[in-house]
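A.,

Following up on our hallway conversation. Structure tokens first:
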């Protein structure tokens, strides 16, 4: 959809979210770059999704990515 591999995006977001939670709300810069990329990709594809594409799931993942970026505790 719109040149975005939704399965890959979902899988990558799942991994980043798991790591972020496991690390107490902390993800290194490379991981955060991935989360920002995922957020941008979801934002790009959202307008093209139809209801049967589970828009609510993608909207929730987009919001989760935004919150992770806003509240990341960078590792020391």
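Then the amino acids I'd put at each of the 76 positions:
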């Amino acid at each position: 959809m719109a040149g975005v591999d939704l399965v890959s995006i979902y899988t990558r977001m799942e991994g980043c979210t798991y790591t972020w939670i496991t690390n107490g709300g902390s993800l290194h810069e490379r991981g955060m770059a991935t989360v920002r990329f995922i957020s941008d990709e979801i934002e790009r594809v959202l307008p093209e999704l139809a209801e049967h594409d589970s828009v609510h799931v993608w909207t929730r993942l987009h919001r989760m990515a935004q919150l992770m970026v806003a509240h990341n505790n960078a590792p020391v």
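The chain has a mean pLDDT of 93. Curious whether your intuition agrees with the design.

B.
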